[in-house]
Amino acid sequence: MAEYSFDPIAARDGLVAALRALAAEQGFSRVVVGISGGKDSSVAAAVCARALGRENVFGVMLPDGTQADIADSRRVCEALGIQRRTLNIGAMHAALRAAVGESASDGEFHIPASREADINVGPRLRMTALRCIAQSLGARLAGTGNLSEATVGYCTKDGDTSCDFALLGTLTSVEVVQVGLAMPELPAELVEKTPTDGLSGMSDEEKMGLRYADIHRYIRLGTCGDGKIDERIRRREAANRHKRRMPVVLDPFR
Predict the structure, then answer these.
(1) If I label 134, which of 23, 106, 109, 174 is the partner at 20 to 30 A Cα–Cα?
(2) Could you tell me which of 113, 91, 123, 86 has the C-alpha nearest to residue 200?
C-alpha cells in the first residue's frame, strides 16, 4: 500500500496563515470556540490563538449537566491563555426533553421517545449557545469538526456542523493529532486523548464501529487495506453526504 506524506508543521502554519487571511478579508478579529477538552477543539483553539492572539479567542465550555472531564476543558483554556466561560446547557436540555415528552392534546400527533434524537439535542443546543455568544461579542464561530468525522457523517446536522469557518475540515482525525503534537503549548495527553462524544458514554470508534486509522487510510490512500471496511465507510459516506451540503432547493419548474 502506498504511503501518504503529511507535514504537521506546514499544516499548522498554513492554518494560521489561512485564518489570518480570512479575518482580514472578512473584517473580524475575535473568535469563539466550543471547548470540549478533546483534540479537535484544543487544536482549533490553539490555531486561533496563534493566528489572532489569545486575548481574541473566547473558549466556551458547555457541559450538559455533569461533565466528567470538564477539568480537561479548563486545562486547555489555561494552557493557551485564552478567555473562558462555562455555560451549562443541562437545564435547557431538560426543559426541551420535558416539552417533547408531554402528552399530546386532542387532535395532535404523539412524539415517540428517541434516544438518538435526544443525544443530538446536546450538540444543537451547544451551537445555539455558541451562536448567541459569538454574535454578542461581535465574533465569528470556529468549527472544530475534522474530515474523518465529516466523511462518515459522525457529526450532528445543525449542531457541530454549524460554524462560520471549518478550521480542521481538510484534516483527518489522525492528522489533527499530528498537528496538535506540533503545538508545544498544548498538553500532549489531551491531544492524544481517546475521542468520545461526551453524550453516549462510548468512544467515537465504539459508537461508529470504525477506527479512525482506517478512515484516514481510506481518505488518503483510497483503501484502508480491508475491502469490507472500505465498503462500510463508502456506505456511510454516501448516506451522510446531506450533512456536508446546503439544504436542497427544490425547483418546481425544472
Answers:
(1) 174
(2) 123
